[in-house]
Amino acid sequence: MLLRHRIRALAGLGLATLTCAVALPGEATAATGAAPATAATPATGGRASGGGLSAVIRYTEYGVPHIVAKDYANLGFGTGWAQAADQVCTLADGFVTLRGERSARFGPDAKPDGSLSSATTNLSSDLFFRGLNEAKAVDRILGTPAPAGPTRQAKELMRGWAAGYNAWLAQNRITDPACRGAGWVTPVTALDVARRGYAITVLGGQGMAADGIAADARPGAAPRTAEAAKAPADPAEAARKVVDEQRKNAGMGSNAVAFAGSTTANGRGLLLGNPHYPWQGGRRFWQSQQTIPGELNVSGGSLLGMPVVQIGFNERMAWSHTVATGVPVSLYELKTVPGDAHAYLVDGRPERMTERTVTVPVRGKDGRTSRITRSQWWTRYGPVVTSIDDLPLPWADGKAYALTDPNAESLRFTDASLSLAKSRSVRGAQDALRRTQGLPWVNTIAADSGGHSLYTQSQVLPRVTDELAGRCSTALGRQTFPAAGLAVLDGSRGGCALGRDADAVQPGIFGPSAMPSLVDAPYAENSNDSPWLANADRPLTGYPRIFGDVSTARSLRTRGAVEDVSALAKRGGLTVADLERQQFANRAPAGDLAAAGAAKACAALPGGRATGSDGKPVDVSAACGVLARWDRTVRTDSKGAVLFDRFWRRLVRSAPQAELWRVPFSPASPVTTPNTLNTASPAVGRALADAVAELRGAGIALDAPLGEHQFVERNGKRIPVAGGADALGIWNMIESAPWDSARGGYSEVRHGSSYIQAVGFDGGPCPAARTLLTYGQSSDPTSPHYADQTRLFSAGRMVTARFCEKDILSSPQLRVVRVGER
């Protein structure tokens, strides 16, 4: 009642005056006399989007909007408006992509930012998305009744988001130089918003294979690249690379841990979420609180263009996601009809492929527009592909390959996120995931105020059981499936179809009962490895291979994370402050395992000299003490971290795992093995010599503090950045742009820690939460929220979240606006 009363008061007499006086953070100056948005959408039958939609937005510190609306359409409106105010250029660029207009706007050979597909050129991207649009792939799913299709609430959110984005465009001038005055910033429709959600959903499937689908695939045609022309020496290794690439396309990575009440100071759950996502482009997170009084109240991070929170918390439950090991696609090997490569056999009967002819307008170097046409071929299993990453799939010798992606039949990601946002407990989160079955490529980790914890790999996966793979794998599949979980099935046999689980909302996917899950363990953690060691004391096994592996070596990041969180759980008495300390501990597990050995090997070198990869001797004697004294962290003031980082990256690239360690991996000790650096390997001295020579050549001291050489530049000012690469095993993962000695080292972050949240509960209506959006709310360099949280990240600090009304309204930086179409 208090919330409703305050909202009515804000929306009353004084708010109209307040709106005129208060500008939205990051918002451009209001344009005089601008008309409201009038873009027609399919969801409204051609009428103007929204019909007078509005919302109240309260901004608190660091430009975080708290959006309040009376229903889902109006909430979508406020979200679309606020996202446009912070990220209009990035969003507009994405809509150009989704419409297949990049070649006409920016030329065919330039490269998209990779946020919506893995296409390597604008032309490939346009062919892929125009093919989907002309086939009305998204339109068809929008027309499918729930639960297989989106709910009314999801559609209303999309409709409102489009109207809010359009209203912001109509009423404001753009200040961001990235698109100020650009003709490609145009109104959008609800269908555009749905297409964006669809593109995100298929990032690990058809989006990963965009080049292969969009290529001018013809029977016997030359491969698209010289690399693809080479048959892989090891198809299993090629499949591993495909699956690794799929995970990179779907998301960069993540860590998350939930602690049960048995480990915490107050007996209630705790959650730390640390997704690793790009710092630039359309796959950034954006932070908000979304409220419909009496219906929804959630705070967290959303992917740009999505109308709901994807990772967040409410007053009773918090959740995060990590990119899962489940392989969301499978391949079918087709037997083509002799003399007709565009037909294939199923149980001895021929079926014609369906041709999709796609034409893309292209701007030439002379500024003139021409058109390029390609044919794409589709089968009952999905599109024909001639390669995926390094795995060639030649359409020749009576064979072709089709890609099956069950996420291409789903728009349920929004509903899954919305249902999680409304869940009041871990059990509610499980029920939400069972109902919606809409998470495409992520695990879920959650904790609640009742003291419960959850890990579950509830994702949409092709229903490739181990039995089906054993019965239907082709010769290629018998290599790729055990190695990487990528199935290659016999498409000539109808009995090799994916089938249907009784509890699945769509054919060809696993139902909820098959999902690996762990409830109420003292801790439940994932760092992008399989479900096996979500808790090292309660390993998960028995799931189909396509979900992930068991009894194999874990990544250094998983090993370091399990060491840290299991120690915290055993210590007990945990609070939100402990989660924040874990986030910024910046321990380097690789350093703990190898730095002392490297220092001893260095000290034992005759004359203190090692031979580099160029065959030249290098005096490395000064490096020995630096490595020995290094504190094994990657804090900004850590001396020796730069040297070890440059040494370690070289070493793991050049030395096979079997050669790197003296003690090999043991399934009986998966967290502590392999270990003990093999200093007898010549790769150790070579990597050390190369690292020392590189730093000296750049004029960088071997004991230089990390922050002097790992940083970002924002408006001409350097901001030191802590954290380190995945290869170092660090929780606070930072993958920087390639090393550039001329610019002083790592001068930009490509991806890494992004929307961070540490959440606890005290039994009341106000969760104890601290958050951080590492790169800030806005990518507009003129915005006050362009780098404010980046400076916090550099200092190892987080923001105390304002969730309850009393906290929002007491913010010293409170700014309130009512936004609407009129």
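The record above closes out task 2.4. Task 2.5 opens with a second protein, given below.
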Amino acid sequence: MSEFKLTTVEEFEAATARLLETGAKVGADAWQIRAKNQTPHCKFGEQGICCRICAMGPCRITPKAPRGVCGCDAHGIVGRNFLKFTAGGAATHSDHGREICHTLYCAKEGGNYQVKDPEKLLRIAKEWGVETEGKDIYDLAHEMAEIGLMEYGKPFGYQRFLDRMPEGQKEKLIENEIAPRAIDREVASSLHMSHMGCSSLPEALVKQSLRCGMADGWGGSMMGTEFSDVLFGTPKPIDTEANLGVMVEENVNIVVHGHDPSLSEMICEYADSKEMIDYAKSVGAKGITVSGVCCTSNEVAMRRGVPMAGNFLQQENVVLTGACEAIVVDVQCIFPALGPLSKCFHTKFVTTSPIAQMPDSEFIRFNAETAGENAKAIVKMAIDNFKNRKPELVHIPQLKQKATVGYSVEAIVKVLDGVTNSQVDVTGTTKPLLECITSGVIRGAVAMVGCNNPKIRPDYAHIELMKKCIANDIVIIASGCSAQAAAKAGLMDKSARDLCGAGLKRVCELADIPPVLHMGSCVDISRMMILAAELAKDSGLQINQLPVVGCAPEWMSEKAVSIGNYVVGTGIDTFLGVDPYVSGSSEMCELLTEGTRKWTGAAYTVETDIEKLVDLMIERIEEKRTALGI
């Protein structure tokens, strides 16, 4: 058997450099060039001390002008900006969840969308107190979709999924006014609070930032995750491959990109059909390869084994290969640059959502009722485009790694059941993992999440942090672009256990798992919250006592700030490698790095030196172990 070898960031960069040579030949732009042209970034913006929320300004805080025209100081301006940033992210993730609820409402026997996990639907219905006896599964699906949609605008009460928390935690959140009410109410309240002449008290703005983030994590995102499982199947471990080498030169290459699995699932369905494969062969291709970018990629990888071409900052690279017939996008994290870039090649850039319309794209409006015909038209368009390739521009970097993905909470529990003594132990719990932690075989866990960002050497922070954590017997659960960084490097190959400390290596061997567990897309960070809640309940602890931390070393989007706020709101210390634009206010810095502890038991740590960041995470995990006496 050949020796396992990680793919290095240097190899990623060499592959990208070769693709940029092709781009230069055809006059294509790239993020590397645009980032350079934007540097240095505005320091007022980076510190959060620029305010443009009314037309008396824009105002910026300087020693000469310590207050805006209205009299708001740096602390209020930074706080409002942080809350607006959170509201943007929570609205985005929650709209994703809303779309999935609508898709569930359209599911029917023999239709475009069907219920693939009826047991999960029944389980959630029971949890929500919905009568299931004697009901047709589709009638129940429609009822649950409607109840889910009501979570967005209900006039009273809190998010239903908060009842999944350990005893007393929901009540503490209510007491501190952090428990999320209707999802849309929290977004609207955040925009209202940050309007001119409303809140400028940092403490109030931070509390609402946590509450708005919680409406995402324990509301919109959690519904997006749970109902996607009902519709498309709950992920279980499946083998796939990652990095640009998954694209196949002899095949029609379709790349799906974005976040909503409703589109990508249908594209995969039709690309797999005999009719379309035969049609591809009739135009001279050997077949069809669908691969993915960003979270849409995570969704189809963990349910179908569809290979992952790359993460956020690799989206232009798939077009630069010259072998991409179509890049088909839904919503979020899509570069508007893909339009002009695709025009330099033969690639079709297909937008499908009224939420994400862009210049230089072909817009095929996609909805649940017409999903089949839309997907078929897109796959056919890609096949018809195969003949327009320019062979002299084709270059696919031969980099790829094996990855085992799809570790939903249900899948993790099943893996744990495999290592329990069924004669003595209770199955269906997280107790085997807890035993590994309390005995010190595993020191703790890091939930590694988030985007990549040109401000940090792409993927480097994710990969280096993961390597050091697993060498110190800390298991990684990963989602989003962070998960794809791990997969591209080879850290989701089961052979990567050779990089672990002795304890984690033994656990990986016994449970037959990689040391970095793929939990899904960005909305699936809600899975991590469910797992943390289950670990707390099974151990009789509160979530904030667990030796678990969150980390987003390369984050860049509003969604990431919303996620950070719900992870901290849940009681999990969160470590950031990019400053969240609050450094202009000492009061906001103090609140976010220490003050939130009095409400949730957790806070942020910001450290842009990656070596220091990982050491601080390990230190925090060990502090939590000491506090528990383990």
